[in-house]
From TrEMBL:
Protein name according to UniProt: DNA polymerase V
Domain of life: Bacteria
Species for this entry: Pedobacter terrae
Record PANTHER family: LEXA REPRESSOR, LEXA REPRESSOR-RELATED
Organism ancestry: Bacteria, Pseudomonadati, Bacteroidota, Sphingobacteriia, Sphingobacteriales
Domain Peptidase S24/S26A/S26B/S26C: residue ranges: 28-138
Pfam families, A to Z: Peptidase_S24
Length: 160
């Protein structure tokens, strides 16, 4: 039986340059069950899956509700790639007017807006682009399905 290792934040540096990979089922039906798969010998490299440029990638935990409209909830882990150049409608991590935040960036003509995907938070027009410092583009989102989850009807389910 294969043992599973939990890697602490402190010891993660040891694995930075090594290849960590796991077996992955090549297709798990989320609707009707699929006939038996031919092989489960497919390998998934966690580094390759989450990053295209490991040296330019970092992780951050989402706090708040401003991006719930696009499925980013409190405690989701954001995979942030500093090597990607933001394009229209990307989710970016940035500092703006002294705050460190994640927002959708939208450019309309010469104007740039920071959009929260929650009607409780209005769009912010970037008055001075020099005050907007992009740290990176959110390239992936890691979710914990056993944490607090809002379903599509807005009901909260908490695993006990």
């Amino acid at each position: 039986m294969e043992s599973h290792l939990l890697v602490s934040k402190e010891s993660l540096a040891e694995y930075k340059d090594s290849e960590i990979s796991y077996f992955i089922a090549p297709g798990i039906a989320c609707g009707f069950p699929s006939p038996a798969t031919d092989s489960l010998e497919v390998r998934l490299s966690i580094t390759d899956f989450f990053t295209s440029n490991p040296t330019a990638t970092f992780f951050g935990r989402a706090i708040g509700s401003s991006l719930e409209g696009i499925g980013i909830f409190e405690n989701d882990v954001l995979v942030i790639d500093r090597s990607l150049r933001p394009v229209n409608n990307d989710i970016i991590v940035m500092t703006y007017e002294g705050g460190f935040t994640a927002k959708k960036v939208v450019k309309e003509g010469n104007e740039v807006f920071l959009i929260s995907e929650n009607p409780e938070y209005p769009p912010v027009k970037v008055a001075d682009p020099d005050n907007l410092i992009v740290w990176g583009v959110v390239s992936k989102i890691i979710k914990d399905p056993r944490s607090v989850v809002k379903n599509r009807y807005g009901h909260i389910r908490k695993v006990i």
